[in-house]
Amino acid sequence: MPRHPTRRRVLGGVAATALVATALVVIPTAAQAHGGLTNPPTRTYACYEDGLAGGQAAGESGNMKPRNAACINAFNDGNYSFYNWFGNLLGTIAGRHETIADGKVCGPDARFDAYNSPSSAWPTTRVTAGQSMTFQYAAVARHPGWFTTWITKDGWNQNQPIGWDNLEPAPFDRVLNPPLRESGPAGPEYFWNVNLPSNKSGKHVLFNIWERSDSPEAFYNCVDVDFGGGGGVTPTPTPTPTRTSTPTPTPSVTPTFTPTPTPTPTRTSTPTPTPSVTPTFTPTPTPTPTPTPTPTVPTDSVCEVEVDVSNAWPGGFQGNVTVFNATMEPVNGWDVTWTFGGNEKVLQAWSSTVTQTGATVSAKNVAWNSTIAHHNAVSFGFIGSGTPQAVTAATLNGNACIVR
User: Which residues pair with 38 in a beta bridge?
Assistant: First the structure.
């Protein structure tokens, strides 16, 4: 449905002014989404590791069999987040983090909603108040931007999903373009030293946003920590990194999760039976090996639709459409369609060529904005008549989109 933010929030220097706009948004596919904390591990990465370890223990290498109770709950909600633990993102948020509903900050994408669930079972990292530790952030694809981390307030209710008011108003750490190395547990990673708050005790949640400076995309991480014991994951500190200048973003190859192949069983020859008068040979059936089940990596749509209203009046409204390329390749020439939920009509548009048949609108690029770089966006606007309703369907170059 159209969003109408009613408040503004400045999250410790992260621009969060509510830009209320009609926006058609395309978010990256899961296999091409790219970023998440591995130390201290975000809930998604910790559950991914737990699932792999459980599969290995069960003799099903490559399969997901989580054993942690909170991770089992997340897995039962669908295995999407396990194979795409680095894809907890919003593609066109553009700093408008305050539009994320309270209780949804750990999983603003509905496919990660299970990670909003309060549980004492989430894998927890043991830390010490005031400790200096190295944050490691998987760079499945590399982009410049800010990494900002908050912590929950003292006395926050651990039995309720985390909302904005559960977080300290200012972040305790914020870094722009930290150095990059190739040797992380999940491949290339950003890394930087962090001083944890010195006035905390007991269990808390760290909330981290990676906000790209070259795109409206942002990634979200919730990390469970215990100041003073508990938990089962201990971070290993590394030397203080030497900061480097802002890196030039370069595309990265999306990791492919390949399950361990099922071994071919060794066949045992069948002895020849002892003949009585005339030897009779009875063939023994060839054994049929039982295949080891292999995980199905879920597919994702190539785009996502988010609709807001920038201005409205009796009988009409103004909208802005943002198209975000959901792939690792540039889109050369785009045609975006969406279906209005009511009697809306596009009267005029700019930065695109728009036609409408019934409730379905088609918007094509003009000469100067025909290319959308990978994980980036173009925008255009329009004036419409009628009362804006929720968009019910959308496509990008014929590919179905997720509608938010």
Answer: 41
At which residue do the structure tokens 């997901």 appear? 64
Judging by DSSP bridges, how do beta strands 218-227 and 125-127 pair with one another?
Answer: parallel
CA dist., res. 310 & res. 206, Å (int):
33
What range defines the domain where residue 102 resides?
Answer: 31-227
Tell me: the pLDDT tens digits for 242-284? 443 444 443 333 333 333 343 443 444 444 444 444 444 444 4
**Amino acid identity, residue 358?**
G
pTM for the complete prediction? Answer: 0.68
Indicate the range of 70-84, 278-292, 321-335 predicted with least confidence.
278-292
Q: How far is CA 174 from the centre of its chain?
A: 20
Helices (H) and strands (E) in the chain, counts: 3, 22
Q: What is the DSSP letter of 113?
A: G
| Residue 276, domain member (yes or no) | no
C-alpha 124/C-alpha 205 separation (Å) is: 9
Render 23-92 in DSSP notation, one character per residue: -------GGG---EEEETBPHHHHHHHHHHHHHHHTT-TTS----SHHHHHHHHT-THHHHTTT--EETT
> Please, what's the b/e burial string for 248-286 (b: 16 or more CB within 10 A of its CB; e: otherwise)?
ebeebebeeeebeeeeeeeeeeeeeeeeeeeeeeeeeee
DSSP-derived 3-state class of residue 99: helix
CATH number for the domain harbouring residue 317: 2.60.40.290
Task: Name the residue among 319, 318, 317, 342 with its Cα closest to residue 392.
Answer: 342
Q: Which amino acid is at 54?
A: G
Non-local (6+) Cβ contacts of 97 within 8 A are 9, 11, 14, 16, 209, 218
**Nearest partner of 333 among 375, 300, 363, 302, judged by Cα:** 363
Final residue of a structural domain among 205, 227, 249 = 227
